[in-house]
Amino acid sequence: MKKKIVILGSTGSIGRNAVSVVRHLSDELEVVGIAANRNIKLLEAQARELKCKYAAVADEGSAGKLHGNLPRGCTLLAGEQGILELCLKPEVDMVLCAIVGTGGLLPVLESVKAGKDIAIASKEVLVMAGDLVMREVRRNKVAFLPVDSEHSAIFQCLEGKRKEDVGRIILTASGGPFRGRKISQMKSATYASALDHPVWDMGPKVTIDSATLMNKALEIIEARWLFDVASDRIDVVIHPQSVIHSMVEFIDGTVLAQMSAPDMRFPIQYALTYPVKHSGSLKPLDFAKLAGLTFERPDTRNFPSLDFAYEALRLGGTLPTVMNAANEVAVERFSKSEIRFTDIWNIIEKVMSYHKRLDRPSLDAILSADKWARETAVSI
Fold first, then answer.
1. Which residues, in sequence order, are bridge partners of residue 284?
2. pTM, 2 dp
3. What is the chain's Cα-based Rg?
4. Which positions ≥6 away from 216 have C-beta within 8 Å?
5. Which domains does the chain show, CATH number per domain?
6. CA nearest 133: which of 322, 348, 321?
7. What CA–CA distance (Å, rounded) separates 221 from 302?
8. Other CB atoms within 10 Å distance of the CB of residue 256
9. pLDDT tens-digit profile, the chain (380 residues)
10. Contact in structure between 39 and 11 (CB atoms under 8 Å)
11. What is the DSSP string of 31-62?
């Protein structure tokens, strides 16, 4: 029987790669519904190709333009409520959440409560509400599978291992387009140059986060909640080739690493078909052609994002939410040339320092902290 899935964020980078995986594994996977924010042209094309029963558009103005253009038998859903309605359809087995930013939080929470398995690409969900989300995951006994290449790697390295045998988790990072530069050299960095990633083909927000190392900062927090590991046992190493996607060091000093070509379809396929591995359409590594794998320590003096993450985890509460929201606003402002590249870090640091933290926040408190941080980040 085919696994019936929903893809939230189907028109983004992860979503398009997920469609590619489904195209190859059409005997195993069926896409019941797809959702996007406002890219209705691509959404319509995907709905036709995948023969979806439902298509949801978060932006209600854009949804109106799609009305009447969907294939016969495909129902249009609109707005945030439409996204939730899609996730909760009784025939849905799994929700792949690839919504960029904070918009994935409510759909993921409600899907978990409804007993749906989750493939999570929206790292902001766990950054904002990791404790809350994972409590619901345990309560409802659903699968919660990482789509990030790093967390998929860790998940695979930990399979069948005892928690007490784990020494530390080692996240790898490419270093981004500005690896090796000083802050003074990055002050004049343009939006286009920050989008020029040396390895990965990603969406613009994630690519800018990679340039600041904020993507890795978010992944530190994500790893803490996904794997229930204290932050002092989560390390980061720069690995420019992005062949080793992450590692787990055990208490006896041995290390397991997961390797593949840098292609997001690998972890997406693993999450969608877990626990079964299927023959893929992607080429395996040719070790004879690997020129060499190198590693270096992250430069936190010139790239302070990792320190922000460790501080947010140390103090906890609503601070990770605030860090994430401030970053989202700062990246948006940088994309509009309102601030310099290096101002992204300045804004995050200031908003975090201004925040009056709440411990063990409710969902309402998390959303309130998110709103406050966004308003504050706009004013700096």
1. none
2. 0.95
3. 20
4. 171, 173, 210, 236, 298, 305, 306, 309
5. 3-146 (3.40.50.720), 151-262+282-301 (no CATH), 316-380 (1.10.1740.10)
6. 321
7. 20
8. 16
9. 899 999 999 999 999 999 999 999 999 999 999 999 989 999 999 999 999 999 999 988 888 888 778 999 999 999 999 999 999 999 999 999 999 878 999 999 999 999 999 999 999 999 999 999 999 999 999 999 999 999 999 999 999 999 999 999 999 999 999 999 999 999 999 999 999 987 777 789 999 999 999 999 999 999 999 999 999 999 999 999 999 999 999 999 999 999 998 899 999 999 999 999 988 778 889 998 888 899 999 999 999 999 999 999 999 999 999 999 999 999 999 999 999 999 999 999 999 999 999 999 999 999 999 999 999 999 99
10. yes
11. EEEEEESS-HHHHHHHHHHHT-SEEEESSHHH
Tokens encoding 139 = 């309560």
**Size (the chain), residues:** 380
